[in-house]
Design goal:
With about 260 residues, the protein is of the alpha/beta class. The chain contains 10 helices and 7 strands. The chain is globular and about 55 Å long. Bound molecules: S-adenosylmethionine.
Protein backbone atom coordinates (compact mmCIF):
# COMPACT_ATOMS: atom_id res chain seq x y z
CA UNK A 1 0.00 0.00 0.00
CA UNK A 2 1.23 3.53 -0.77
CA UNK A 3 1.07 6.36 1.73
CA UNK A 4 -2.11 8.41 1.45
CA UNK A 5 -1.00 12.00 1.95
CA UNK A 6 -4.64 13.10 2.09
CA UNK A 7 -5.54 10.92 5.07
CA UNK A 8 -6.02 12.67 8.41
CA UNK A 9 -4.17 9.73 10.03
CA UNK A 10 -0.95 10.78 8.23
CA UNK A 11 -1.18 14.50 8.83
CA UNK A 12 1.68 14.57 11.37
CA UNK A 13 3.99 12.24 9.40
CA UNK A 14 6.09 15.15 8.15
CA UNK A 15 5.69 17.56 11.05
CA UNK A 16 8.03 16.48 13.84
CA UNK A 17 11.53 16.33 12.39
CA UNK A 18 14.07 18.85 13.67
CA UNK A 19 16.00 20.80 11.05
CA UNK A 20 19.65 19.89 11.47
CA UNK A 21 22.71 22.16 11.21
CA UNK A 22 24.07 20.06 8.32
CA UNK A 23 20.99 20.89 6.19
CA UNK A 24 21.34 24.60 7.02
CA UNK A 25 25.03 24.57 6.07
CA UNK A 26 24.30 22.96 2.68
CA UNK A 27 21.51 25.42 1.90
CA UNK A 28 23.70 28.38 2.83
CA UNK A 29 26.41 27.01 0.51
CA UNK A 30 23.93 27.13 -2.38
CA UNK A 31 22.07 30.38 -1.78
CA UNK A 32 21.78 33.36 0.55
CA UNK A 33 18.17 33.13 1.81
CA UNK A 34 18.16 36.55 3.53
CA UNK A 35 15.39 38.78 2.20
CA UNK A 36 14.27 36.23 -0.42
CA UNK A 37 10.75 35.08 -1.25
CA UNK A 38 10.73 31.29 -0.96
CA UNK A 39 8.09 28.86 -2.24
CA UNK A 40 8.37 25.43 -0.61
CA UNK A 41 6.44 22.97 -2.78
CA UNK A 42 5.39 19.63 -1.27
CA UNK A 43 5.89 21.30 2.11
CA UNK A 44 4.23 18.58 4.21
CA UNK A 45 3.99 19.78 7.82
CA UNK A 46 6.00 22.89 6.98
CA UNK A 47 9.23 21.96 8.81
CA UNK A 48 11.46 23.36 6.08
CA UNK A 49 9.14 26.29 5.32
CA UNK A 50 9.78 27.40 8.89
CA UNK A 51 13.50 26.73 8.45
CA UNK A 52 13.67 29.11 5.47
CA UNK A 53 11.98 31.79 7.60
CA UNK A 54 14.54 31.16 10.34
CA UNK A 55 17.23 31.69 7.70
CA UNK A 56 15.81 35.22 7.29
CA UNK A 57 13.78 34.69 4.13
CA UNK A 58 11.46 37.68 3.72
CA UNK A 59 8.41 35.51 3.10
CA UNK A 60 7.75 31.82 2.66
CA UNK A 61 4.81 30.17 0.91
CA UNK A 62 4.39 26.46 1.58
CA UNK A 63 2.34 24.53 -0.97
CA UNK A 64 0.98 21.02 -0.70
CA UNK A 65 -1.77 19.16 -2.55
CA UNK A 66 -3.00 17.65 0.70
CA UNK A 67 -5.49 19.73 2.70
CA UNK A 68 -4.45 17.74 5.78
CA UNK A 69 -0.77 18.68 5.34
CA UNK A 70 -1.71 22.34 4.82
CA UNK A 71 -3.83 22.18 7.99
CA UNK A 72 -0.92 20.72 9.98
CA UNK A 73 1.65 23.14 8.56
CA UNK A 74 -0.61 26.11 9.34
CA UNK A 75 -1.19 24.84 12.89
CA UNK A 76 2.54 24.23 13.50
CA UNK A 77 3.50 27.66 12.20
CA UNK A 78 0.85 29.60 14.09
CA UNK A 79 2.20 33.03 15.01
CA UNK A 80 4.71 33.30 12.17
CA UNK A 81 3.65 36.31 10.17
CA UNK A 82 5.83 35.74 7.11
CA UNK A 83 4.96 32.07 6.47
CA UNK A 84 1.72 31.07 4.73
CA UNK A 85 0.44 27.76 3.41
CA UNK A 86 -1.70 27.10 0.35
CA UNK A 87 -3.24 23.96 -1.06
CA UNK A 88 -2.06 23.36 -4.62
CA UNK A 89 -0.56 20.79 -6.96
CA UNK A 90 3.17 20.92 -7.73
CA UNK A 91 2.35 20.88 -11.45
CA UNK A 92 -0.14 23.77 -11.23
CA UNK A 93 0.14 25.58 -7.91
CA UNK A 94 -2.23 28.42 -8.76
CA UNK A 95 0.30 30.92 -7.32
CA UNK A 96 1.18 34.10 -9.29
CA UNK A 97 3.94 33.97 -11.91
CA UNK A 98 7.32 35.44 -10.98
CA UNK A 99 6.40 35.62 -7.30
CA UNK A 100 9.43 33.75 -5.88
CA UNK A 101 13.20 34.13 -5.72
CA UNK A 102 13.71 30.53 -4.60
CA UNK A 103 11.59 27.44 -5.23
CA UNK A 104 12.44 24.56 -2.89
CA UNK A 105 11.20 20.99 -3.39
CA UNK A 106 12.28 18.49 -0.76
CA UNK A 107 11.32 14.81 -0.93
CA UNK A 108 8.63 15.73 -3.46
CA UNK A 109 9.68 14.53 -6.89
CA UNK A 110 9.88 10.82 -6.07
CA UNK A 111 6.12 11.07 -5.68
CA UNK A 112 5.74 12.52 -9.20
CA UNK A 113 6.12 11.04 -12.69
CA UNK A 114 6.32 14.22 -14.77
CA UNK A 115 9.44 16.11 -13.63
CA UNK A 116 9.28 18.42 -16.66
CA UNK A 117 5.82 19.69 -15.71
CA UNK A 118 6.96 20.17 -12.11
CA UNK A 119 10.06 22.16 -13.07
CA UNK A 120 8.17 24.20 -15.70
CA UNK A 121 5.81 25.25 -12.89
CA UNK A 122 8.81 26.09 -10.68
CA UNK A 123 10.20 28.17 -13.55
CA UNK A 124 6.89 29.99 -13.96
CA UNK A 125 6.88 30.92 -10.25
CA UNK A 126 10.47 32.21 -10.27
CA UNK A 127 11.72 35.62 -11.26
CA UNK A 128 14.54 35.73 -13.85
CA UNK A 129 17.74 34.69 -12.08
CA UNK A 130 15.73 32.88 -9.40
CA UNK A 131 16.90 29.52 -8.13
CA UNK A 132 15.27 26.09 -7.97
CA UNK A 133 16.62 23.79 -5.25
CA UNK A 134 15.44 20.19 -5.50
CA UNK A 135 16.33 17.67 -2.79
CA UNK A 136 15.61 13.98 -3.12
CA UNK A 137 17.21 10.56 -2.88
CA UNK A 138 18.42 8.78 -5.99
CA UNK A 139 18.69 4.98 -6.46
CA UNK A 140 22.41 5.38 -5.59
CA UNK A 141 21.56 7.22 -2.36
CA UNK A 142 19.24 4.50 -1.15
CA UNK A 143 21.20 1.44 -2.22
CA UNK A 144 23.97 1.91 0.37
CA UNK A 145 24.33 -0.95 2.86
CA UNK A 146 22.73 -0.64 6.28
CA UNK A 147 24.89 0.66 9.13
CA UNK A 148 24.28 2.09 12.63
CA UNK A 149 23.92 5.50 10.94
CA UNK A 150 22.21 4.58 7.66
CA UNK A 151 19.39 2.59 9.20
CA UNK A 152 17.31 2.51 6.00
CA UNK A 153 19.82 0.14 4.41
CA UNK A 154 18.61 -2.47 6.93
CA UNK A 155 15.03 -2.04 5.68
CA UNK A 156 16.01 -3.18 2.20
CA UNK A 157 18.15 -6.05 3.54
CA UNK A 158 15.21 -7.30 5.57
CA UNK A 159 12.59 -6.74 2.83
CA UNK A 160 14.29 -6.66 -0.61
CA UNK A 161 10.96 -5.88 -2.27
CA UNK A 162 11.16 -2.39 -0.71
CA UNK A 163 14.30 -1.71 -2.73
CA UNK A 164 12.45 -2.63 -5.92
CA UNK A 165 9.70 -0.15 -5.00
CA UNK A 166 12.33 2.50 -4.26
CA UNK A 167 14.24 1.92 -7.49
CA UNK A 168 11.01 2.26 -9.46
CA UNK A 169 10.10 5.63 -7.92
CA UNK A 170 13.43 7.33 -7.15
CA UNK A 171 14.76 9.93 -9.61
CA UNK A 172 18.15 9.40 -11.23
CA UNK A 173 20.48 12.37 -11.22
CA UNK A 174 20.55 12.41 -15.01
CA UNK A 175 16.74 12.45 -15.30
CA UNK A 176 16.50 15.44 -12.95
CA UNK A 177 19.34 17.33 -14.65
CA UNK A 178 17.80 16.77 -18.09
CA UNK A 179 14.33 17.83 -16.92
CA UNK A 180 15.72 21.00 -15.26
CA UNK A 181 17.61 21.86 -18.41
CA UNK A 182 14.56 21.25 -20.67
CA UNK A 183 12.51 23.45 -18.31
CA UNK A 184 14.81 26.44 -18.84
CA UNK A 185 17.23 26.15 -15.91
CA UNK A 186 20.95 26.77 -16.31
CA UNK A 187 24.05 26.88 -14.08
CA UNK A 188 23.06 23.41 -12.89
CA UNK A 189 24.79 21.96 -9.84
CA UNK A 190 24.35 18.49 -8.37
CA UNK A 191 25.75 17.62 -4.96
CA UNK A 192 25.37 14.65 -2.63
CA UNK A 193 25.18 15.23 1.09
CA UNK A 194 24.75 13.30 4.33
CA UNK A 195 22.04 14.83 6.45
CA UNK A 196 21.28 13.93 10.05
CA UNK A 197 17.75 12.58 10.08
CA UNK A 198 17.03 12.12 13.76
CA UNK A 199 18.80 11.56 17.07
CA UNK A 200 17.28 8.79 19.20
CA UNK A 201 18.18 8.38 22.87
CA UNK A 202 18.17 4.61 22.45
CA UNK A 203 16.96 1.81 20.20
CA UNK A 204 13.45 1.89 21.74
CA UNK A 205 12.92 5.41 20.45
CA UNK A 206 14.03 4.34 16.95
CA UNK A 207 11.71 1.31 17.17
CA UNK A 208 8.74 3.58 17.97
CA UNK A 209 9.65 5.77 15.00
CA UNK A 210 9.72 2.74 12.67
CA UNK A 211 6.48 1.27 14.06
CA UNK A 212 4.76 4.66 13.60
CA UNK A 213 6.05 4.89 9.98
CA UNK A 214 7.00 8.48 10.92
CA UNK A 215 8.31 10.38 7.90
CA UNK A 216 9.04 7.25 5.86
CA UNK A 217 6.48 6.65 3.15
CA UNK A 218 8.18 3.38 2.12
CA UNK A 219 7.11 1.75 5.41
CA UNK A 220 3.48 2.03 4.29
CA UNK A 221 4.32 -0.89 1.98
CA UNK A 222 4.75 -3.15 5.06
CA UNK A 223 2.04 -4.65 7.25
CA UNK A 224 2.15 -4.11 11.02
CA UNK A 225 3.44 -7.70 11.45
CA UNK A 226 6.22 -7.01 8.93
CA UNK A 227 7.10 -3.81 10.80
CA UNK A 228 7.55 -5.88 13.96
CA UNK A 229 9.86 -8.22 12.02
CA UNK A 230 11.81 -5.21 10.75
CA UNK A 231 12.21 -3.80 14.26
CA UNK A 232 13.61 -7.16 15.43
CA UNK A 233 15.96 -7.26 12.39
CA UNK A 234 17.30 -3.75 13.08
CA UNK A 235 17.45 -4.44 16.83
CA UNK A 236 19.84 -7.35 16.29
CA UNK A 237 22.25 -4.92 14.58
CA UNK A 238 22.26 -2.09 17.13
CA UNK A 239 23.09 -1.80 20.84
CA UNK A 240 19.88 -1.56 22.90
CA UNK A 241 20.83 1.32 25.17
CA UNK A 242 23.16 3.51 23.12
CA UNK A 243 21.94 6.64 21.30
CA UNK A 244 21.30 6.28 17.56
CA UNK A 245 22.12 9.15 15.22
CA UNK A 246 20.41 8.39 11.93
CA UNK A 247 21.73 9.91 8.71
CA UNK A 248 20.38 9.86 5.16
CA UNK A 249 22.27 10.47 1.95
CA UNK A 250 20.56 12.93 -0.34
CA UNK A 251 21.16 14.51 -3.71
CA UNK A 252 20.50 18.22 -4.18
CA UNK A 253 20.10 19.78 -7.61
CA UNK A 254 20.23 23.52 -8.05
CA UNK A 255 19.49 25.53 -11.18
CA UNK A 256 19.02 29.17 -12.11
CA UNK A 257 16.15 30.41 -14.24
CA UNK A 258 17.58 31.83 -17.45
C1 LIG B 1 7.80 13.02 1.72
S1 LIG B 1 6.77 14.40 2.06
C2 LIG B 1 7.97 15.70 2.26
C3 LIG B 1 7.46 16.86 3.07
C4 LIG B 1 8.48 17.97 3.28
N1 LIG B 1 8.94 18.54 2.05
C5 LIG B 1 9.65 17.48 4.10
O1 LIG B 1 10.74 17.27 3.53
O2 LIG B 1 9.51 17.31 5.32
C6 LIG B 1 6.12 14.75 0.43
C7 LIG B 1 5.05 15.83 0.43
O3 LIG B 1 4.72 16.14 -0.94
C8 LIG B 1 3.32 16.28 -1.05
N2 LIG B 1 2.96 16.01 -2.44
C9 LIG B 1 3.04 14.82 -3.11
N3 LIG B 1 2.64 14.98 -4.38
C10 LIG B 1 2.32 16.28 -4.54
C11 LIG B 1 1.84 17.06 -5.62
N4 LIG B 1 1.60 16.53 -6.82
N5 LIG B 1 1.64 18.37 -5.44
C12 LIG B 1 1.87 18.95 -4.21
N6 LIG B 1 2.30 18.26 -3.14
C13 LIG B 1 2.52 16.94 -3.30
C14 LIG B 1 2.74 15.31 -0.05
O4 LIG B 1 1.43 15.64 0.34
C15 LIG B 1 3.74 15.41 1.10
O5 LIG B 1 3.36 16.39 2.04
Amino acid sequence: MKIDFHAAANRYSYASREVQPDWIAVIRSLVDPAGKRVTDIGCGGGIYSAAWADLDAAEVTGVDFSAEMVRTATEKNHGRTNVVFRQGDALATGLPSESADIVFERALIHHLTDYDACFREAGRLLVGGGQAIVQDRTPEDISLPGSPEDIRGYFYECFPRLLETENARRPTSQAVERALSRSGFGALRTITVWETRKRHDDFHSLAADIRGRVGRSILHALSDAELDELVRFVGRRLPADAPVVEKDRWTIWSGTKG
